[in-house]
């Protein structure tokens, strides 16, 4: 069971490794059909678990997660669901990793897509400072915050067995979501009048260092200091849409760089005219700022603010 983000006590300050620069392009919503699964099975487990393990590994590859991360993800899924895509769990926990819609992990439909669930798990693993130096158990617990904090270690041998079988797996499906949520956090100040000014975006509060990802495919048109924003990234998308990501702690992309939806581009910070760590997320078309929450609804994208 995954407890709420509000219960996370680890303050995310570590830099994202350069290995995530070619992260999987988008938040998968149509699933993943893994190929390259080995001909042998894993004793005590069936075809369902084998396919789900292959999906977890395939997503890890596409996100350029180090192999140790695949083992952590497999051990976590073995503990949480027995590597089954469950439609039930404690309270509203669902899927391979027993992620909870009520705590911001996604909609029930998203969480019960193994590709989406694996992507979410890896994103949060990357945000754990020093996760590659942790034990398998402690790294898994840092993401899950389970009531059974020592339960993951016993699944490490089985995770290695699964990996040996599905090591060659790849994901043949491509993501269909055009827009994805730029950061996991709590929506605070919204679009519209704010005191004597007009707030041109949506603020999403999150700890310093939390990964910010590109909301959609596009080209970076600016990355650096900006008055009021401290440090920002601006991306131009199709149809003249420009997204802005402000108050960043650190930028990970350069002007002219092509990025994919879901690719890490920066880290949440508290620079510029900011009263606390958060992302200022702004959407403009033709120089006109739009309400990001309403824009996401119009695009049939995942809710920007749940």
TrEMBL record:
Record keywords: Signal
The domain of life for this entry's organism is Bacteria
Record carries keyword Signal: yes
Which Pfam families does the annotation name?
Peptidase_M23
Native organism taxonomy: Bacteria, Bacillati, Actinomycetota, Actinomycetes, Pseudonocardiales
Domain M23ase beta-sheet core positions? 198-292
Position of the signal peptide? 1-22
Q: A GO molecular function for this record?
A: metalloendopeptidase activity
Q: What is this protein called?
A: Peptidase M23-like protein
């Amino acid at each position: 069971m995954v407890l709420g983000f509000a219960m996370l006590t680890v303050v995310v300050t570590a830099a994202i490794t350069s290995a995530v620069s070619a992260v999987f392009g988008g938040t998968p919503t149509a699933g993943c059909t893994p190929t390259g699964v080995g001909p042998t099975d894993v004793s005590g487990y069936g075809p369902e678990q084998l396919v789900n393990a292959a999906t977890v590994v395939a997503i890890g590859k596409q996100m350029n997660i180090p192999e140790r991360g695949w083992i952590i993800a497999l051990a976590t899924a073995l503990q949480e669901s027995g590597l089954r895509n469950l439609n039930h769990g404690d309270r509203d926990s669902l899927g391979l990793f027993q992620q909870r819609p009520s705590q911001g992990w996604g909609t029930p439909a998203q969480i019960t897509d193994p590709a989406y669930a694996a992507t979410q798990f890896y994103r949060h693993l990357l945000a754990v400072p020093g996760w590659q130096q942790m034990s398998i158990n402690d790294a898994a617990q840092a993401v899950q915050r389970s009531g059974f904090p020592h339960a993951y270690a016993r699944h490490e041998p089985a995770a290695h067995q699964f990996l040996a079988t599905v090591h060659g797996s790849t994901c043949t499906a491509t993501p269909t979501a055009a827009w994805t949520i730029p950061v996991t956090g709590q929506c605070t100040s919204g679009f519209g009048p704010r005191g004597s000014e007009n707030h041109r975006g949506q603020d999403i509060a999150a700890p310093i260092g939390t990964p910010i990802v590109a909301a959609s495919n596009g080209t970076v048109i600016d990355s650096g200091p900006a008055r009021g924003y401290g440090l920002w990234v601006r991306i131009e998308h199709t149809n003249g849409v420009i997204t802005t990501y402000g108050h960043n702690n650190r930028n990970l992309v350069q002007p002219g760089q092509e990025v994919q939806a879901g690719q890490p581009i920066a880290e949440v910070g508290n620079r510029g005219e900011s009263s606390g760590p958060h992302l200022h997320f702004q959407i403009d078309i033709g120089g006109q700022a739009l309400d990001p929450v309403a824009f996401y609804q119009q695009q049939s994208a995942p809710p920007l603010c749940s």
